[in-house]
Specification:
Elements lengths: L9 E2 L24 E4 L9 H6 L2 E9 L1 E6 L2 E6 L3 E5 L5 E5 L3 E8 H10 L9 E3 L6 H20 L4 H16 L11 H17 L7 H8 L3 H11 L4 H18 L8 H7 L5 H12 L3 H14 L1
Parallel strand pairs: 1-7, 2-8
Antiparallel strand pairs: 3-6, 3-8, 4-5, 4-7, 6-9
Helix pairs in contact: 2-4, 2-7, 3-4, 6-7, 8-11
């Protein structure tokens, strides 16, 4: 909610502005003193209400009319009609607004925003906020608003299945994030590389434990789907296949290392989580061309020769 016009945190709206875009349906019911909100972050079934209440959310704001200031990385950025602003729930947002300020806010699950960014090779801003350096063209704005109206009606009717709402969330995220060219950038390879490197370090540090895709996604701050796309892009395989190969390589190194004290193949296999020994032996042979028992015998033969 905005404070009265006498508040110091107000902007001068005397400069001529175009009329705000015309909205119909549920979004038109919001007065100019409140934000129009399409809340897809809380549109989960009742059974998932508790989980949704604590999930990280992002807000993407489309400024329809008036002026505002955005606090970003300690600097104040003036923005006007047509600009798009993204920020996380816990990130600084708009600090000042003109009396005629009007905006449309789309609230999305943080995991959906992460998923869209990975899929399109967009890089989320490390500071938690971003803005478009230039406003949307009026015709682009008018094409986008009917979609928001459609989603608003679906939410008001409360009849759309979760799969449809997830589709809407992805669609709105794609359209709005595509307008951002400051903070979320194409062709910034190091960011995804750093994320993938963090995941690989986690695997290395927990190689003797059970590692699931869900746990890796949580560690990386991604959805499971985005994690699979990250591994496909950087490793050419699924997370499960990569973890299995990494464990097999550690078994190979252990069996072949003269300095390791290994009682038998079974002990090493179990140490790295391979409980089905027949399947483990076949995977080992497919990967290294020999059976694990052959590796152990070769190492023991070397020990005797020394």
């Amino acid at each position: 909610m905005r404070v009265p016009g006498s508040s110091p945190n107000r902007l001068d709206a005397s400069r001529a502005q175009p009329s705000p875009p015309c909205l119909d349906g549920p979004l038109a019911n919001a007065a100019l003193t409140t934000d129009r909100v399409v809340d897809l972050a809380r549109s989960r079934p009742a059974a998932a209400a508790n989980a949704a209440a604590t999930e990280r959310c992002c807000e993407i704001r489309l400024i329809l009319h008036g002026q505002c200031r955005l606090l970003l990385a300690g600097h104040v950025r003036p923005l006007g009609a047509g600009h798009v602003v993204l920020h996380a729930d816990d990130a600084p947002g708009i600090t000042e607004r003109s009396d005629d300020f009007d905006s449309l806010v789309v609230r999305l699950p943080g995991a959906t925003v992460d998923e869209v960014c990975v899929e399109h090779e967009w890089i989320k801003p490390e500071g938690g906020a971003a803005f478009s350096s230039s406003p949307l063209r009026p015709e682009a704005l008018q094409r986008f608003l009917p979609l928001c109206e459609l989603v608003g009606r679906e939410l008001e009717a409360d009849s759309a299945p979760p799969e449809v709402l997830h589709h809407y969330a992805r669609l709105l995220a794609c359209k709005l994030i595509a307008a951002l060219d400051h903070g979320i950038l194409h062709s910034e390879p190091d960011a995804q590389t750093r994320c993938f490197a963090r995941v690989l370090r986690y695997i290395d540090e927990h190689i003797r434990h059970e590692i699931t895709a869900e746990r890796l996604a949580q560690h990386a701050g991604l959805s499971v789907r985005s994690l699979y796309m990250l591994f496909e892009r950087h490793a050419g395989m699924t997370p499960k296949a990569y973890i299995r190969r990494a464990k097999l390589e550690q078994v190979y190194v252990t069996l072949m290392d003269p300095a390791s004290r290994v009682a038998n193949v079974t002990a090493v296999a179990l140490e790295f989580g391979f409980t089905h020994l027949g399947r483990f032996a076949e995977l080992y042979r497919q990967t290294f061309g020999i059976l694990p028992s052959t590796s152990l015998k070769a190492r023991q033969g070397g020990d005797r020769a020394d």
